[in-house]
Amino acid sequence: MIMKKEYANVADMIFDRGAFKFGAFRLKLHEKNPSAPLSPFYLNLRTKDNPTNPGPLTDDDCDLIAIALWDKIKLWNIDFQAIAGIPHAADPIIEALERVVPKPWGFRIIKLAKEIKDGKRKIVPLPGFDYRKGENVLVIDDLVTKADSKIEAIKAIESEGSIVKKLFVLVDREQGGYFELRKAGYDMISCFTIMELLAYYLATGKIDNEKYEECLCYIENN
Q1: Its annotated pathway (predicted)?
Q2: Is the CATH number of domain 5-221 3.40.50.2020?
């Protein structure tokens, strides 16, 4: 499988860092559906300083991700004036975008936060950031399985009068999130689908055909 250099660099980094794991994993979706089959793969695309679930990525890794995301943003000619990451996994990615994107493009960062209210976690606008009425905001996250947290974050941004048309994720696990977002009226773009990553890892000898088929069967049936 041939992959553009910017994307291959990220795909290789994810695997080599151990951010793509194989085994039997419970996901966030199991909170609502405990009887769902365990996933044979797991991605932890977070940095080491993530406050809730530390991962293996470094700031340099986030810069590689930002370069690939920016290439895709230009390819799709996405119109936006600000970017917002879904906390906390995407915060280092939007900070990396600010580092690597040429300055003339000039977008602003706005941030969201997680708060606990009545025992439930809720995504809310983070005070101190300049939300502007009618402004297009591009929402970014590391991956998508289902769309609950994505829609919650979008609604938080819209509550400030800003507009969200698109959400951009690094990896789409292809487990329904894309279609849930479309049903809610939002477009989603991914840098990789999970099948694209698996096909690349098979082609480059990082996984064998047995592991590929196991993951393929899980995706097709879940």
Answers
A1: Pyrimidine metabolism; UMP biosynthesis via de novo pathway
A2: yes
